[in-house]
Design goal:
Layout: E1 2-3, H1 10-23, E2 28-31, E3 34-36, H2 40-48, H3 55-58, E4 61-63, H4 69-76, H5 82-90, E5 105-106, E6 109-110, E7 114-117, E8 126-128, E9 131-132, H6 133-140, E10 143-149, H7 154-167, E11 171-178, H8 187-197, E12 206-210, H9 223-229, H10 231-240
Parallel strand pairs: 1-10, 2-7, 3-4, 10-11, 11-12
Antiparallel strand pairs: 5-6, 8-9
Helix pairs in contact: 1-2, 1-9, 1-10, 7-8
GO molecular function: ATP binding; dethiobiotin synthase activity; magnesium ion binding
Keywords: ATP-binding, Biotin biosynthesis, Cytoplasm, Ligase, Magnesium, Metal-binding, Nucleotide-binding
Family: Belongs to the dethiobiotin synthetase family.
Length: 251
């Protein structure tokens, strides 16, 4: 899960989508391997999954400073263990998992059939020397969900992100446009313009417009309510990614 920028709503979408899938009976884990500048995002993902998860279940690297991991490397003269992070994420993937059912524990590590891995910032945000969010996607063989703020300028931002991704051999599965409190005049046509200008891509599923959920969207206590309010969009995402349970969407 990659953004066109920082602060576009990746964590909110990841958390609510994880909650939706869990309610549908899908064995899912949402995680943010790299996080800095506060634990609000980690706490939101913990609450969204409604389990007794520790930070170590969702996050590999953390620092209090609001800087990228690579900037932290330069400031402190210590290396970020990128390869260790890749191994950490892979250890959470249930190899035989279809995504349905519970979360097995292997060697004390709870695994999931579906992993939602949230990046930091944009696709080319640096994570370590010579490594970016795109590098993490490549190492994991991930399908990308591009999350962006639905406002003027988003068409260019999304198309640039997708171009950078495909040039690096990454597969883009979906674009999610996050609704804004005060939508500008570009909003009604942004999704259509993105669809019209996308390159040919194998496995691309579509562009989803996600509703604005209010000023308290990051409040973990509101997650059950927010997931219901966004239920239609979350159901569309699950169906496009073939992650819906046989019973269909929750009410």
């Amino acid at each position: 899960m990659v953004g066109t920028d920082t602060g576009v709503g990746k964590t909110v979408f990841a958390g609510l989508f994880a909650r939706y899938l869990m309610d549908e009976g899908v064995g899912v884990r949402a995680m943010k391997p790299f996080c800095s500048g506060g634990k609000v995002d980690i706490e939101f993902l913990q609450a969204a999954q409604d389990e007794n998860l520790g930070q170590e279940d969702l996050n590999f690297w953390y620092c209090d400073e609001p800087i990228s991991p690579a900037a932290w490397e330069l400031r402190h003269g210590q290396a970020v263990d990128f390869e260790g992070c890749v191994d950490w994420v892979k250890s959470r993937q249930w190899p035989g998992g279809s995504g349905q059912g519970g979360l097995p524990s292997v060697g004390g590590v709870r695994q999931a059939g579906v992993l939602l891995v949230e990046g930091v910032g944009g696709l080319l945000a640096p994570l370590a020397k010579g490594k970016t969010v795109a590098s993490l996607g490549q190492a994991l063989g991930a399908q990308l969900i591009v999350v962006a703020s639905n406002r003027v300028g988003v068409v260019n931002q999304v198309l640039l992100t997708i171009e950078a991704a495909t040039k690096r051999g990454l597969k883009v599965a979906l674009v999610v446009l996050m609704g804004q409190k005060e939508p500008d005049d570009s909003v009604p046509k942004n999704a259509d313009l993105i669809r019209q200008n996308l390159p040919e891509m194998t496995g691309f599923k579509g562009v989803i417009e996600f509703p604005y959920l209010g000023p308290d969207v990051s409040n973990p206590d509101l997650i059950p309510i927010l997931a219901k309010e966004a239920g239609k969009a979350l159901c569309q995402v699950a169906e496009l990614l073939a992650l819906s349970s046989p019973s269909g969407a929750s009410d």
